Amino acid sequence: MIQGALRFPLPLAEGALPVSGSIGTSLFPEDGASAGELLRHADVAMYRQKQQPA
After folding, report:
1. Cut 0.70: pTM above it
2. Which residues contact 39 (CB under 8 A, 6 or more apart)?
3. What is the DSSP letter of 43?
4. Rounded alpha-carbon distances, angstroms, from residue 37 to 7, 16, 22, 47, 49
5. Average pLDDT by consecutive 10-residue portion of the chain (54 residues)?
6. Contacts of 31-37 spanning 24+ positions with Cβ under 8 A
7. Is 34 in contact with 42 (CB distance < 8 Å)?
8. What whole-number distance in Å separates Cα of residue 25 and Cα of residue 32?
9. SS3 state of residue 50
């Protein structure tokens, strides 16, 4: 659903703006007990995935 929404560029008066998104996930309580810990682990997961060959 999110991927589908980001598939097409956003129309602008001057043309179109391509859009992309990245998501990382973490689990409570395995990856952290606080919001900060969970966000940090989700960020790490996202960047690890981006480093994987396509």
Report:
1. no
2. 26
3. H
4. 31, 37, 19, 16, 18
5. 84 91 93 97 94 81
6. none
7. no
8. 12
9. helix
